Write a sequence for this structure.
């Protein structure tokens, strides 16, 4: 058996290496004969794997050698071409599905414990009475304190209508709760929040682009329209991207019919494609402000770039990541996969989304705010980089929107209005890392019934929080709290976090999110910019502006 496994991995080494070296092997009918030079290199490679496996000073598996060599090979290409082990490939495909079978809870590791952040309404967890703050101490009798988050989530998921036995520790109860929860289909939503921020301003947050995002967005916009939405804030912060077709389907709901959305250009002819708004879904046609930051990437940059280039919205926040390499995923033997870069993304005005990656170190440590030509004003609260200003990368290539506004190339999307949320203080970070706000919110709602959504924490609640920090031995010196409360900004931040976590425990994540939006400088700036977004729409209407044609349509001379 062992000999057979070694032979299998030796064979896989040859198969995978050949597939990578002979690029055409990924394209079926384009498979080309391996020349003598390639054969010689393959021979060296297989000899190396064999010698390393048989002669290395400690035990090493063929699988580990093969996977490590693949990773090393792909690092010579670009930052985003990646080998997907069978487990990683399965995980990627699962994340792109619109649903899974499980309990219906959001969980996280807090203070080393598997903690329920919130149950999802209408799911088995919600019906069983699982609450925010509950600690899942065992799954099928196995302690969770030594499990990683991914391992615990995998154990909680399973086939539909099967049961999973869990033990829950809950504040205020002396004995743990034993539960047998029947798994059900749980929607895997990517439109995480959709609500009215004011009487006529809708807020939609999209976490990524999976198979259902276009449909989710259409439903969210329709519901908000019915509730009276006349303006929209679209939050793409920390949205790392996802499926191209879903970015196009969502963009179709924001830009005029016939408008270019994105163009891909690569080394081979088939990689040149232009995508346009089809008009299959109703165009939003209302003022839009899009929130972005350094975590906004790929498909999220396609959407924000199309909105900016066609002047149907204002972009607010900090510069996006700049991930514009197109990955095509290929299935390999043994359940593995390869996400291979085959092209680059360009916005309708012709901007390349991808940042330079000549140096991987610079690519991953790059701070886009430092590259902007802007003043780091101080708002009087000791935090820099929060002032609203128009930013432009120095010496960046200039492009033009439909209305002739300047936008900038060089990678990523530079916001029309640059505003940072700033940094939190060391004391605030201390409270966050100790999970203090969340735990206090759970404890407070156990002691007080919060039923009115107009409730706000007063000074007495903050003093209760101070006593709780001391009682729980999170804080050993009350002077640290007292000094922080003398500063208006810190006092407002602590009050906001306490308010949000109490509402998370009492009413759920949406109500908690609404509270945090009031203290979010980027959201508040977005509200201020909605009039500017309306002006752009009016200018488009006055000029009868037609959408941009694709920036480049020629097929020759445009290499990857």
């Amino acid at each position: 058996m062992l000999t057979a496994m070694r032979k299998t991995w030796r064979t896989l080494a040859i198969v995978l290496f050949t597939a990578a070296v002979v690029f055409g092997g990924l394209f079926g009918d384009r498979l080309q004969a391996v020349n003598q030079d390639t054969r010689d290199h393959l021979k060296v490679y297989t000899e190396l794997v064999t010698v390393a496996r048989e002669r290395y000073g400690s035990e090493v598996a063929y699988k580990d050698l093969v996977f490590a060599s693949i990773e090393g090979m792909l690092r010579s290409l670009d930052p985003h071409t990646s080998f997907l082990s069978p487990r990683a490939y399965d995980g990627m495909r699962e994340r792109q599905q619109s649903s899974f079978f499980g309990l219906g809870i959001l969980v996280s590791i807090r203070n080393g414990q598997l903690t329920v952040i919130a149950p999802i309404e209408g799911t088995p967890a919600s019906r069983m009475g699982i609450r925010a703050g509950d600690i899942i101490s065992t799954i099928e009798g196995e302690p969770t304190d030594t499990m990683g988050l991914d391992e615990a989530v995998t154990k909680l998921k399973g086939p539909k209508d099967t049961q999973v036995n869990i033990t829950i520790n809950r504040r205020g109860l002396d004995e743990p709760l034993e539960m047998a929860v029947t798994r059900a289909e749980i929607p895997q939503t990517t439109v995480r929040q959709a609500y009215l921020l004011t009487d006529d301003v809708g807020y939609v947050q999209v976490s990524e682009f999976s198979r259902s995002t276009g449909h989710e967005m259409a439903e969210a916009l329709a519901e908000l329209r019915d509730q009276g939405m006349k303006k929209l804030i679209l939050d793409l912060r920390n949205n790392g991207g996802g499926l191209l077709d879903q970015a196009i389907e969502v963009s179709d709901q924001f830009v005029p019919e016939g408008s270019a959305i994105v163009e891909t250009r690569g080394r081979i002819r088939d990689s040149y494609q232009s995508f346009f708004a089809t008009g299959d879904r109703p165009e939003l046609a209302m003022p839009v402000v899009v929130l972005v930051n350094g975590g906004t990437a790929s498909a999220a940059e396609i959407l924000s770039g199309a909105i900016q280039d066609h002047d149907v919205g204002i972009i607010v926040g900090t510069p996006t990541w700049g991930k514009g390499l197109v990955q095509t995923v290929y299935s390999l033997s043994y359940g593995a996969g390869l996400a291979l870069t085959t092209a680059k993304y360009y916005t309708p005005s012709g901007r390349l989304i991808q940042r330079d990656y000549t140096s991987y170190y610079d690519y991953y440590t790059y701070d886009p705010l430092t590259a902007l030509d802007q003043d780091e004003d101080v708002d009087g609260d000791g935090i820099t980089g929060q002032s609203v200003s128009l930013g432009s990368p120095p010496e960046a290539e200039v492009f033009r929107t439909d209305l002739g506004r300047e936008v900038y190339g060089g990678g990523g999307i530079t916001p029309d209005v640059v505003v940072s949320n700033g940094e939190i203080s060391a004391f605030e970070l201390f409270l966050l890392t100790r999970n203090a706000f969340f735990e206090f919110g759970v404890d407070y709602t156990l002691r007080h019934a919060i039923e009115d959504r107009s409730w706000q924490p007063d000074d007495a609640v903050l003093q209760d929080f101070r006593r709780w920090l001391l009682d729980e031995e999170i804080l050993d010196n009350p002077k640290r709290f007292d000094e922080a409360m003398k500063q208006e900004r810190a006092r407002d931040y602590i009050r906001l976090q306490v308010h949000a976590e109490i509402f998370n425990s009492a009413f759920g994540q949406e109500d908690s999110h609404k509270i945090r939006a009031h203290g979010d400088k980027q959201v508040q700036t977005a509200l201020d910019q909605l009039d500017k977004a309306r002006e752009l729409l009016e200018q488009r209407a006055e000029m009868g502006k037609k959408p941009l044609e694709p920036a480049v349509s020629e097929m020759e001379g445009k290499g990857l």
